[in-house]
Amino acid sequence: MSSSTPKVGFVSLGCPKASSDAERILTQLRAEGYEISGSYEGSDLVVVNTCGFIDSAVEESLDAIGEALNRNGKVIVTGCLGAKAGVVQNAHPSVLAVTGPHALEEVMSAVHDNLPKPHDPYTDLVPPQGVRLTPRHYAYLKISEGCNHRCSFCIIPSMRGDLVSRPVGEVMNEAENLVNAGVSELLVISQDTSAYGVDVKYRSGFWNGRPLKTRMTELTKALGELGVWVRLHYVYPYPHVDEVIPLMAEGTILPYLDVPFQHASPRILKSMKRPASSENNLARIKAWREICPDITIRSTFITGFPGETEEDFAMLLDFLQEAELDRVGCFAYSAVEGAAANALPDQVPEEIKQERLARFMALQEAISAEKLRRKVGSIQTVLVDEVNGDEAIGRTSADAPEIDGVVYLADAEGLQPGDLVEVQITAADGHDLWAAPPSE
Ligand code: SF4
Question: Which residue among 153, 154, 199, 272 has the greatest number of ligand 1 atoms within 8 angstroms of its CB, and so is best to mutate?
């Protein structure tokens, strides 16, 4: 590539959804002939993709913008923080442009205004699967943007708008391109995966000349035909979720369900305005395990939501004890600027939120440790993520990248990232597993 090729630096912060936005921008930049530079100093301008979800993310994003301004000087800001009126401009008035999330065209137009595109676009330099930020063997597949719910602690709908599902044919083509490029695992993401297609009344699209409904079950089945690991994230427990459990039991997709329950007290769930809040989740989990005994259920919870009494919290602990979830994340409630929950009465004092969080995590850790301990001695299939000499790090179907545990593999000579190998689990702690080649 010639030295006169315009070079863009890129910093991406935030969740997988933000990474997916970043991938689109990077793909478009490459398609138009821009070079992506790995350093501030070697770039003609820098795009910073921000997160604005909680206060610490806001600070991290503002710091990243400040660093890019100091070291490069020409900075375009995109992402969730950009949607918060005036925050970026007030902190850093010299940024060239600010857009919200999911704003490919606005970002590209700001890039064009400040760094004209090369005359001869190297469109052939962009592989059909686009440019990705995740390692070559797994990729996030974003199926929709926005959300029709109005959970009282969340500001995503006000930043990203109502649900807009991507056309099913487009999603499938992207998935197929990724698989053809060597991806072994597709992670399906959105704000509300089970609502996929609601906005277009589940209309039929086309994939490879055959009709396919814009609906989670149909999409999942089609993805299962691609012959790679398919993992579902952000699934709310609506009744139709039951339809995908048999697909997990028969091996079409991974037996893994990421369901953010957030609480177990009906009163708190109602006050949180959670989707599917009146479902009997314990009964559902039991039914799912009957159909697919190997299912891994991951969830997230909040302690100390406004109005949470000791009785509500006890219900949450009881739920945890009964549900025996495999993977759990938990946060003490923290007010997010602009969220409706800030105005709720009976805010819980910080030390009680933290104390409940600690009790919650202690209980869950014992449950997770026991569940992992039961895997010692078993044979598992592991997807290799990283190889260092004769050791490797991988994941079983029960571990999503970046959020769950890992498997440390001994005697791993000759393995490559992306390989699927059978191993025998030799040890476990509360989070991770250790394994070696199966004994004969
Ligand atoms: S379901 Fe609730 S928490 Fe999730 S994005 Fe929508 S409003 Fe926010």
Answer: 154
